[in-house]
Amino acid sequence: MNKRGVSLWGFVGTVILTTLMAGSQGLGLSRINFPFMLGTMFTPNRDRAKLIGFGVHFLNGWIFASVYAAAFESWRRATWWLGGAIGLVHALYVLVAAMPTLPAMHPRMANEQQGPTPTEQLEPPGFMALNYGRRTPITVIVAHLLYGAILGAFYRLK
Amino acid sequence: MSPDRTSKSFGYPPIDDYALIGDCRSAGLISGDGSLDWLCLPRFDSSSVFAALLDAREGGRFRIRPVGEYSSERRYLPDTNVLETTFRCPSGAFVLRDLMSVSSEEDKRASLTPEHEVLREIEGIDGEVEVEVLYGPRLDYGLTRPVLERQWDHSLRCEVGGAALILRSELPLELEGDSRGASGAVRIRTGERKYLSLTYSREAPAVIAPLGEAARERIERTVRWWQEWANRCTYEGPYRDAVVRSAVALKLMTYAPSGALVAAPTTSLPEALGGVRNWDYRYCWLRDASFTLRALYALGYREEAEAYIGWLLHATRLTWPELHVLYDVFGEARLPERELVHLEGYAGSRPVRIGNDAQGQLQLDVYGEVINGAARFLDRGGRVDRDTSRMLDGLGRTVCKRWREPDEGIWEGRSGRFHNTHSKVLCWVALDRLIEMHEAGYLDVSVDLFRANRDEVRKEIEAHGYNERIGSYTRTFDGEEMDASLLTLPLYGYIEGAHPRMRSTCARIHEKLATGELIHRYETGTDDGLPPGEGAFGICSFWAVECVARGGNIEGATQAFEQLLAYANDVGLFAEEIDPHTGAALGNFPQAFTHIGLINAALTLGEYRDGSALAIVKRSSNDIPTEDPT
């Protein structure tokens, strides 16, 4: 595996993905904030959570880049559309499988069966993370498509 | 509308014949004759499983009552949302206990519990009574009559949009010919207990709720949970029973996973029988945010208050820096209104609406409510992060940009936009609280811009929102009409209740809008874009109590408050409106804002009675002229 390629393009892909997701928040398309969700696993302090979450998010970006790279190496081929295809599967997995199970893993996230005990916790994302806005699935899919496409386009096989 | 029109003449119980059960995610209404006529699952705003409330023939119901003649009386088990109806017949009596089971998060981790469960217990207490059961679910607001499948013993199952609806019964139930309903009858003797459990499960395999002793344990667990919650109430002031009942009802209308509070768990209960003022209230309005927070904090429900402000500040981010009028329990602002033409409506009151077009209106008052709510949160020791500080600053900038615009106003009129005095006052409140929070070091906002605009707003209100000739603040700028929303001016600290301008306004509102202690929203001839005809407003009547008390007439306020309490139904619940001629409940039921009004009025009376009135007004009203126009 081309470790330098994974580091560089994993980082670039994560920057693009994060920018796109933050942009979608700013434009009122979605309220989803991956760094915040990840960071609050470690601390309830909102400002610190975002900082920690950013670190964890980028670490995740590199870990997933390694998985993408492993796929490219096994196929002996890396193209933007192959990367995009993996990104699509990745996004669908995140939306359909990971998000609904997140409340079970996250110490500060309510689940949809929560209550009546009051919660100061984070609201659950629900199926396809729709609780964070109707356009959330679209922004997550587009962001992951781009992440995958960047890796596929620029990663050089070893 | 025929003058002798009554709900009973159309085959519907009066609105205040209903009582509420729920699990803080969804809720059901049960009539005095044991009929579960309204239940939406899995959320308050989901489509219905039973909707006889809106169509007695086709809506679907789940009824348990005696065969033959009977009388009934009801109560909630003390400090709970567990409803107990006692049926008395010539041959004996039995008690029906209805609830949606709840448990603590610890209990849920220790054992499997159904996602939602309506549990009904029948207990014979005297002689022998024949009890009949009717089970007829109708999905999607009565459109679909699902096929019921018998599973084992007396259990019936049907599919609800991918979820399973399972009725387990200890009573024998026979399927109707087309398997789209079931019924049965059984004799219950003294001391005998039978259970019926209706569960809803989206996840498979569904959790099957055991009956018998296990069901009794779930009832006891539910009673315990509600009583422990009610015991957390720190309020020791006057009218404690009514206050706690209101708090317990409010808790039930809170959507626990997000902290949001729905205005009411129903849609389209009419503001006038046979009229068109039928709206969907199963959403969350921002307009009473700060009053809600005052009530929750003052009663000692800090966690609920913080969950609510958490929802408030985050749900509104999708529309930031603008605020919409209402959102759903997760902050979705797009809630298009449509009419359900297949339903006849409560007592023939059409149309039945779901969704709410008020979401497209401009109501400038919501900025003041949200920012005032945030100020209450910060005053109570809450802290916000930099993003939230920026968000509040953005809301303030929006106020500065838009306060000169006309808006639809607090009552969501459909006759166009006006310069509503109440909206302008709430713009002043928004900017004033932002400045206060900045000065206290909680926020970093554009304080110079806000100060300049705040002062300008106040000048405009005093110049155009107060009519010297009639000696009163008015509904709209340069107008003469009264509006009950003006009663809130001292509640926000815009002006002291004892200020001559406010006293004369309060007096004029009583003169123009009151029928006894009941207050209408606005004058009869006011064009709100709809045919005339509505009752007096519950929350306005409680605002009047506060306003009178703040004006110094504690005795008059106390008397009015006690008279208002008499309009609650037999289990202590209020609707949105009250018919001033008959005292009947009108509009969606029960109404969270009316109960919030009740709690706040009791709090204010308590403060003034024991001399510890915590004046909301922290600043002087010196810049308001003090001439007494009367």
Notes on the protein architecture:
The complex is a heterodimer of chains A (158) and B (630). Chain A has 158 residues and is mainly alpha-helical. Chain A has five helices and no strands. In chain A, helix 1 crosses helix 3 (46-75), helix 1 runs antiparallel to helix 5 (136-154) and helix 4 crosses helix 5. The longest helix of chain A has 30 residues, at 46-75. With 630 residues, chain B is of the alpha+beta class. Chain B contains 14 helices and 28 strands. The model of chain B is unreliable at 614-620 (pLDDT under 50). At the A-B interface, helix 3 of A face strand 16, helix 6 and helix 8 of B.
The pLDDT mean of chain A sits at: 91
In angstroms, what separates the terminal alpha carbons of chain B? 40 Å
Mean pLDDT across every amino acid position of chain B:
92
- Quickly give the CATH architecture of the largest domain in chain B: Alpha/alpha barrel
The top level CATH class name of the largest domain in chain B: Mainly Alpha
Give the structural class of chain A.
mainly alpha
Please provide the count of β strands of chain B: 28
How many domain regions of chain A? 1
Separation of the first and last Cα atoms of chain A: 6 Å
Shape of chain A: elongated
Radius of gyration of chain A: 16 Å
How many separate domains make up the residues of chain B?
Answer: 2
**β-strand amount of chain A:** under 5%
Unreliable segments of 5+ consecutive residues of chain B: 614-620
Shape of chain B: globular
Structure summary, number of beta strands of chain A:
0
Radius of gyration of chain B: 25 Å
The helix fraction of chain A, in percent, is 55-70%
